[in-house]
Amino acid sequence: MNKNITGPNFQRLGQLFVLILLALFILIPFLLGFWTSLLPTADISKGSLWSSHISLDNYYTAITQTPIIRYLFNSLVISFFTMAAQLLFCSMSAYAFVFLEFKGRNTLFYVFLATMMLPFEAEVIPNFVTVRNMGLLNHYAVMIIPFLTSAFGTFMLRQSFLQIPGELKEASEIEGLSHWRFYASVVMPYSRISLFTLAAYSFLASWNQYLWPMLTTFSDDFRPVQDGLRQLQSQESFNNWGMIQASAAIVVIPTLIVLFIGQHYFKSGLNEGAVK
Amino acid sequence: MGIELASLSKSYDGQNWTLKNINVQIKSGEFFTIVGPSGCGKSTLLRMIAGLISISDGTLKIDDQDVTNLPPQERSLSMVFQNYALFPFLDVKSNVAFGLKARKMPAAQLEQRVAHALELVGLSELKARKPRELSGGQRQRVALARAIASDTKICLMDEPLSNLDAQLRSKMRSEIRELQQNLGITLIYVTHDQVEAMTMADRIMVLHAHEVQQIGTPSEIYQHPANSFVAQFFGTPRMNLLSVHYSTKNQRHLQVDPLLDYVLPMDIEEGDYFVGVRPNALEIHATAQASNAAIKNIEYLGTQSIIHALLDNQEEVRITTAQNNTFSLGERIQIRATAAYFVFDNTGRAIFFNKGDGEDGRTNYKQTVTNAL
C-alpha cells in the first residue's frame, strides 16, 4: 500500500533529476560563454574564470571596433527576406498541391519531395556556378535568391493544409470565393500556427547559414553574422577572446527572440485546434 | 423558388452511375428531405444541386432558370454542413458575416443582417466568441445563422444534426422546422435518419442503390411504401419481411405458417412473395395451446417491449407489445396475424397492402424498382 503511494513520487523525482541533469549539460556551455564575455581577455587567457573585473567592456569594444552591427544588419536583411519569401512561395505551392486539381499532381509532389533528400553540400558547386554566371556574387541577392522556397516548407505546409476540412472549401465555394481569396482569407489564417513555425524555422536556418555565405561574400558590406564571427577571429594575430565572446553573445540575441516568440505562438496553437 | 431536377445523373468514371435519373420537382417553400442509407449518393445529389459537384447528365432548374452549369455562387443558395464548416479563427459574428463580406455587402446592411440572423437563432450574446468556445448545438446554430443572413430563398442542409446528442437533436429538429416556416425558404435536407425525415419533411425522397425508391409525404411513404426497402427503412423496429409461396390452390390464404395466415381479399398470381408486417401488427398469445415460435430476446422499453422471436420455420420476427414483463426468454408463444399487412413480390415491389381498415386494394404505385432488395 505504502509503496503504491511513494512509487510514482520516486519515479517523478527520478525524471526531474534526469531532466535537470540534461538541462545543465545544455546550459553550462551557454552560461560559460556568457560569463566569459564579461571577463577581460587577459583573465580568459590565464584560464581564471573567477575574475574581479566583471564589466561590459567587451561589448563596448565589439560594437565600436568591429563591424558586428553591420553583420547583424546584413543577417537581419537576409533572414527576413528569406523568411518572407519562403512563407509566400511555400504556402502558394502547398496550396496548389492541396486545392488545385491537375494532372500529375502527386507525381510532381514526390519529385518535389525528392529534392529535400539532396544534401545542401551536394548542390553548393552547381549553385555557385549559377549565381556567379548571374553576376550575383557578394550581394544580398546571392544569399536570398537560392533560398526563396524550400521543399521542406512546402511539404510541411501541405500537411497542414490537408488538415483543413473540405467543408470549409465547400462553404467558401458557395459564397463564390476565388482561389486567391480562399487562400488569403481561409487557408492562411487557418494554418497560421504552421506558418509561424515555418517562419521561425526558415529565419533561424537563414541566420545560421555559414558555408554558402562564406563562398559567396567577400566584403563586410554583405557578410552575415556567422561568417562575421569567424572573420573577427582570423583578422588579428592576437585574438581578443573576450570581445569575440561578446560578439557571439550579441549574435545569439535575435535567435533567442525568434525562439521566444515562436514558442509563445506554438503554445497558443496547442489549444487552438479545429472546430470539429 | 422552385427547384426542378430532370433526369439528373452523376458518374465519376463514365461507367458506373453514382446517381441515376433523378426526377423531382421541389416546390417553393417546401421542406424536402432526401433520405437513404450511407453511400446511397444523397450527399452527392445535394452537392450537385449546390454546384459543388458537376452534373454528368440531365438538367437542374432553379426558378425555371437552367443552372446546370452555373458556379455555386450564381445559384443563390446557402448550405449548412454536418461539421458546421465554421472558420475557427473568426468569431461568431464574423462567421455569420463571412458570405456577406465575400459578396461585398455595405457595412451597415451587413451589420443589420448579421444581428437579425443571430437574434433568430438566439446567439446575440455570444457573437464575440470563437467557435471552439461554443457547444455543438451552438455551433450548428451559428451555421444556421450564416445561412439565414445570406437571405437566399433556398437552403441546403447536409445532415446538420448528426453530430448532436439525441436530446438536442429533437430540439433542433423543431427549431429548424420553425425557422423554415417563418422564413418561407425552400429547404433541401439530407439525412440518414428516418425519424428526422418523417418528423420534419413536407415530402421525402428515398434514395437507395443510386436510384430514387419513392417520393412522397411522410404518411404516404409509411402507409404506402413503394417497395420492401422503403417499407423496412421507415419505422422502428423494422418491418418484418416473411417469405411465402402462393399458389391458387391456397384459395387466397397467404400462409407464413399454419398459425400465421393472411387472407387475401382477391386472387394474386402464383409465385413467391414477401409479406411485410409492422412489428405492432402481430399478436402474441402466450397461453394458446398451439405455438409456432420461441422468444429469443426481449427489449424492455418501458411503455412497450420488443420481442424477438424465432418462428418454427426459422424466420425471425420482431413484435412490439404493450404486455410488459409477461414473457420470458425461451418461452413458446403463438404469433397471430392481424388485418394490417403488405405484400411485396419477389423483387421487393409492393403489389398489395391491407391496412385493416377496409381500404384494401392493390397499390397504384407505378414506379418500378429493380434492385429494391
TrEMBL record, chain A:
GO CC terms: plasma membrane
Keywords associated with the record: Cell membrane, Membrane, Transmembrane, Transmembrane helix, Transport
GO terms of biological process kind: transmembrane transport
ABC transmembrane type-1 domain mapped to chain residues: 72-262
Record membrane topology: Multi-pass membrane protein
Superkingdom field: Bacteria
Coiled coil: none
Subcellular compartments: Cell membrane
Main location: membrane
Transmembrane segments: 12-35, 76-100, 107-128, 140-161, 182-204, 241-261
Family, per entry: Belongs to the binding-protein-dependent transport system permease family.
Annotated protein name in UniProt: Sugar ABC transporter permease
Organism: Liquorilactobacillus satsumensis DSM 16230 = JCM 12392
Automatic annotation (TrEMBL), chain B:
GO cellular component: ATP-binding cassette (ABC) transporter complex, substrate-binding subunit-containing
All residue ranges annotated as the ABC transporter domain in the record: 3-234
Signal sequence bounds: none
Name recorded for this polypeptide: ABC transporter ATP-binding protein
Nucleotide-binding as UniProt keyword: yes
InterPro entries registered for this protein in UniProt: AAA+_ATPase, ABC_transporter-like_ATP-bd, ABC_transporter-like_CS, ABC_transpr_MalK/UgpC-like, Mo/tungstate-bd_C_term_dom, NA-bd_OB-fold, P-loop_NTPase, Transp-assoc_OB_typ2
Gene3D superfamilies on file: 2.40.50.100, Nucleic acid-binding proteins, P-loop containing nucleotide triphosphate hydrolases
Top-level taxon of the source organism: Bacteria
GO molecular function term, any single one: ABC-type transporter activity
Keywords of the record: ATP-binding, Cell membrane, Membrane, Nucleotide-binding, Translocase, Transport
